[in-house]
Amino acid sequence: MLLEARDLSVRYGPVMALKNASFDVKKGEIVAMIGPNGAGKSTALRAVAGMLEAMGGTIDTGEILFEGKSIRGLKTHELVGRGMVLVPEGRHVFASMTVLENLEMGGYTNKNAAAVADDMDAVLTLFPPLKARTRQKAGTLSTGQQQMLAIGRALMLKPKLLLADEPSLGLSPNYLELIFDKLREINGQGTSILLVEQNASEALEIAHRAYVFSIGEIVLTDTGQNLLRSDEVKKTFLGG
Ligand SMILES: Nc1ncnc2c1ncn2[C@@H]1O[C@H](COP(=O)(O)OP(=O)(O)O)[C@@H](O)[C@H]1O
Ligand SMILES: [Mg+2]
Asked: How many angstroms separate the alpha carbon of residue 104 from the centre of ligand 1?
């Protein structure tokens, strides 16, 4: 098992945001977390990525294991060192820096210049629109291109597990398709993915398995394909 969260409960001050959530990601999988706004999906990702504290949250109870070892309480940079990188909701690229500089920032932990160059090549090959714009300031890119850059920057850290929070949010339909295709391609190259998405149908299409969140709890889990066919999921998330 790559990632295992057991009976995880998280609060922001008095607000319980996640109650006894258990989920896992096996090596090689794409796992999706779907559910309405405020259901606790981002909270689950933040708990895993060591980003709760920065948001005023704390883990109440539960355990999180990465490759069998407890990671509860580890800082983000320690988790990056273990092989887990989060692409946050809203992308957060460095707007005044170029595409190239953003990717270099991603590779900062990698001391070997030749290895950084190789990783950069791989990212630019994966995302041709970025390759065509390496000297362009990130703030002038379209939303879809910025999302590619945010994912590319994360890939520079060579994660075993890529965590992505709402990567399709705000994208035009063309880029939306492209981002899901790219996630599948990244997974095909050996990176496991834990994906939070409002766009349930697209997420379930590419996910091996998924968890359905509702008001701070996981209420359903199954393969992506089974959930796509589930009447309950259809009614709630897929518009009938
Ligand atoms: N930084 C925060 N401070 C206080 N409450 C928060 C914070 N972030 C999220 N919440 C609350 O926690 C619950 C779960 O939110 P979140 O994990 O963002 O849901 P989702 O990602 O599924 O939309 C919601 O009730 C939300 O209002
Ligand atoms: Mg969210």
From this structure: 32
Question: Is any atom of ligand 1 closer than 6 Å to the C-beta of 187?
Answer: no
Write down the residue that tokens 């098992």 correspond to: 1
Number of structural domains (the chain) is 1
For residues 184 and 195, is the Cβ–Cβ distance under 8 A?
A: no
pTM above 0.90, yes or no: yes
- 56 Cβ closer than 6 Å to some ligand 1 atom: yes
Domain carrying residue 55: 3-237
CATH number of the domain enclosing 173: 3.40.50.300
Query: Residues 4-35: pLDDT tens digits?
Result: 999 999 999 999 999 999 999 999 999 999 99
Q: Report pLDDT digits (tens) over 139-185.
A: 999 999 999 999 999 999 999 999 999 999 999 998 999 999 999 99
Q: Is 95 in the pocket of ligand 1 (CB under 6 A)?
A: no
Q: Please calculate the CA angle 169-174-179 and round it to the nearest 5 degrees.
A: 55
Asked whether 117 lines ligand 1 (CB < 6 A), one says no
Whose atoms come closest to the Cα of 55: which ligand?
A: 1
